[in-house]
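Sanity check. The docking grid for zinc ion depends on where the pocket ends up, so I'm generating a full predicted complex first rather than guessing from homology. Inputs follow.
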Amino acid sequence: MKPLPDCFCPVDGTRVPSDSLAGWCPACRGPLDLDFAPTPAPLKSLAGRVNSLWRYAECLPLPAPTVSLGEGRTPLVELADGVSAKLDFLTPTLSFKDRGAVMLAELALRLRPRQVIADSSGNAGTAVAAYCARAALPCTVYVPSGTSPKKLEQIAAHGARPHVVDGDREAAARAAREAAVAEGVFYASHVHNPYFLHGTKTYVHELWEDLGGRLPDILVLPVGNGTLLLGAALAVAELHTAGLIDRRPALYAVQAAPVAPLAHAWAEGADDLPGAAPPATAPTLAEGIAIPRPPRARQILRAVRESGGTFLTVTDDRIRHAQRDLASRGLYVETTGAVAWAAVREETLGQRTAVVPLCGAGMKTGMADGCL
Ligand SMILES: Cc1ncc(COP(=O)(O)O)c(C=O)c1O
Ligand SMILES: [Zn+2]
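Predicted complex below; grid placement will be based on this.
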């Protein structure tokens, strides 16, 4: 088997072989990056390839998949003048997380762990559970209390064990990390393991292909732990370095106003979260992005800055209206899936084009304002 690219710590440079079960940097316990700078294939050579994200084979860190469920290649539809939506809820487990989860499952298959552990606000756990089922690997998913019952049901349906932690998303992550140090456990962390980002980046490779070798002026992206945003930044860099785009899109990062640590740091001109007192948080409808201390904060802030983008926040009221508005146009998305549209539907973009992801299906949470 071809050797896989190694991981390394972006903070202290510690190298971690990809065939190690270590779920984070052994020196600082932070997230890892991948030593992998691929060159995308030219547009013309993509025709006739497999109709899933595996068509971007040159850019993927893992060769031919064994556990694919046909993930990727989601439709792009117009929402308003200059604004299109990429329907990333049309994936095997109904959220964009499948793009990254398939990478973690492929990796896990090679490592042959006794147990796979993940932590999640719901959707990443659902996706890891499905791909572990496909790979016949036992899986436990740590989720915070308050996770939508439908997501718990989805995790359990795939034969994984949902472990509900009494506390917020950070408490669930802590519990998972404690369990992940046991012998033979693979920590399938969508936050710490960089293979996940090399899956989510295919969101942008698809856009580039569907727009005929171009990208929109603005990519609007919901941000909790930033896995879609950081994946997008990776793909933009790959396409730009290869000379396949001449301009890089601005990344507009969207957070929910009640839990917006990155937007606060951005407003203060900071390049990281404050070391001590984190900004206060409150409950939000956007459960998928309610992350009080994202471990990749520094990387997210830098990616937005380098793209010439910005941060936007949305109130629960705007999320509710955006979800209702999308449903009235035939698009049934979960509450977190509506935040990108909530952020730009009333913005003046002028002549600029933008793409928003609708990245979680309505069945997962139902309508915030009810409808019957
Ligand atoms: C529907 C949906 N959108 C957006 C996100 C945000 O992803 P991230 O936390 O990686 O920024 C999530 C995460 O769970 C999600 O479930
Ligand atoms: Zn480190």
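Relevant for the grid: The chain has two domains: 76-88+201-364, 97-187.
Also worth noting: The pocket of zinc ion (ligand 2) is lined by residues 9, 11-12, 14, 25, 27-28, 30 (CB under 6 Å).
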